[in-house]
Amino acid sequence: MKIKEFFSSFSTKTIDSIKSNKKKSILIGGGILIIIIICVLVFGGNNENTSTQTQVVALTTGNFSKTIDVVGNVKAVPSATLSWGTSGLVGEIYYNVGDAVKKGDVIAKLADTSVAASVLEAQTDLLEAQYELKRVMNSDADFQAAAQALEDAEYDYRAKKDARDYWNFNGTDQAIIDQARTAYHTADTVVWNLEKQYAALASDDPDKEATYNELQEAILARDKALRNLNYLLGHTYDHSVETDYIEFEKAKATLEEARITYERYMDNSEEISAAQARVQALENTVNSSSIIAPFDGVITNILFHQGESVTSGVNAVQLDDLSNLVIDIYVSEVDINEISVGQNVNITFDAIPNKQYQGKVTNLSQSGDDSSGIVEFQVSITVSNPDEEIKTGFTALASIVIQEVKNVVLVPNTAIQSLNGRSIVMVIGEDGTATPIPVEVEASGDSFSILKGNPLAEGDQVLIEIDSASLPQTTTTGGFGGMFGGRQQQSPGQ
Q1: Residue 439: CB partners within 8 Å, gap ≥ 6?
Q2: Average pLDDT rounded to a whole number, residues 14-42
Q3: What is the dihedral of CA 17, 20, 26, 27, to 10 degrees?
Q4: 34-38, 195-199, 274-278: least confident range
Q5: Per-residue pLDDT averaged across 54-82, rounded?
Q6: Which of these, 62, 139, 206, 389, has the minimum number of CB atoms within 10 Å of its CB?
Q7: Residue 249 and residue 372 in one domain
């Protein structure tokens, strides 16, 4: 009766303590409630005594991982449900479920005799439209050539202008330099003409002396013009400089000519755009009687039979890219900051027993969704090693590895006791005596924990407690995330 009175008093004090301190953890409160329930069950009936047994075990090392476990469904990316664009009777079916197709492959088509007349007319019109587009495109060759010539001319013009401007060391206004250069070349032309005239005169010609004097004056005028040009440039107007100026003038003339040619052909582009639009519209009409793959993938379902009557908009084929399988899960705001892109994920399926797949976190939503009443974030996981056993829609348990420690001492949770408010582990010495070693838990799992500072070593003998009067030795790990979109799970590696 004293034991019964003790637990009665203990439960009363515990309840009073919880009422007086509302900041106590829900987990602690739940644990105390379980203890009270067990005590009532054990001591309230037969008053049988409980006993605690101890056992000595040797510590081992292994890999310790901490995961967040969440359930999601498999989908293929990209994935599409293809539908009929017009009504008719199913004619040819070129592929079966499970076949791989390439983008543009025709999977099935309606019988020509069953489709609307407008579709058949579009087939004829399409041939004419394609011929017209080809004709316009061929005539557009001149426009494309003009456009390329203009681009080349603009590039050459810029290069030649940079080469010309390089010689303007004084930064003189280009218009002034052009005037001085024109004056110099005009004076030089006068000299050149007088030299030819003087050379043509006989030595006894009475005009030879007058021509000679005129030539000398022209030479002086030319040299003066050259000195002025040199002064404006800040550099001698020699052969290299003159060559760059001539090349620039040629590039400028070529550019002007290219612009005129381009503008003459430019209006043809509108005709081409109209022809292309007509071809596209007719192709859409013709293709409405066929199911065409919009991307590379595998046919995962066919929703019709040969000879069946179908109508516009009815679903026909499910096409999936099974080489890229993604699992979308939803994680609570409590756990989201522990997840990052690139983390490893262990994936299992109820439909594929005794087999584990690997994956990686590939996308992380930055915006929460509270439509379910709690804030959750979408996380996308890509399966790294997909195979034919995985089907789209399968339910998957994704264990995101948020912490992993390799080759660490694993301490059974039952070896960690509390003494005067501190955690300890009872270590058995060689002489058989038990010594309490203070420890600090770094991370804890369902069965094992790892300690900060490595106070224990592999092979250490420690004392663990076994309650012989405990409930049947089964454990419940809970659901795959429950209403909170995930739960944390820690487990030792093998």
Answers
A1: 411, 416, 423, 424, 425, 451, 452, 455, 456
A2: 36
A3: -20
A4: 34-38
A5: 92
A6: 206
A7: no
Q: Which one, of 434, 387, 388, lies nearest residue 415 by Cα? A: 434
For residues 217 and 356, state if they share a domain: no
> Which of 11, 16, 15 lies closest to 39, judged by CA?
11
pLDDT score, position 447: 84
How far is residue 297's CA from residue 485's CA, in Å, rounded to a whole number?
A: 31
Domain residues for 474? 325-492
What would the two tokens of residue 172 be? 């003189």
Same domain, 253 and 382: no
Question: Is 98 a domain residue?
Answer: no
Reported as a pLDDT band with limits 50, 70 and 90, residue 103 is very high
Which of the pair, 467 or 261, is modelled with greater confidence? 261
**Does the residue 135 lie in any domain?**
no
Q: Are residues 375 and 477 part of one domain?
A: yes
81 located within any domain: no
pLDDT over 70 for what percent of the chain?
Answer: 83
Say which residues have a Cβ less than 8 Å from residue 154's Cβ, sequence separation at least 6.
255, 258
pLDDT at 132 over 90: no
* Other Cβ atoms closer than 10 A to 26: 7
Tokens of 231: 């002064």
DSSP string, 12-57: HHHHHHHHH-TTS-HHHHHHHHHHHHHHHHHHSSS-PPP-EEEEEE
- Residues 333 and 192 reside in one and the same domain: no
Question: How far is residue 108's CA from residue 84's CA, in Å, rounded to a whole number?
Answer: 10
Q: How far apart are CA 245 and CA 225, in angstroms?
A: 17
389 and 263 in a common domain = no
The 3-state DSSP composition of the chain as helix, strand, coil percent (nearest 5) reads: 40, 30, 30
Instruction: Tell me if 277 is assigned to some domain.
Output: no
Contacts of 373 (CB under 8 A, 6+ apart): none
The model's pTM = 0.51
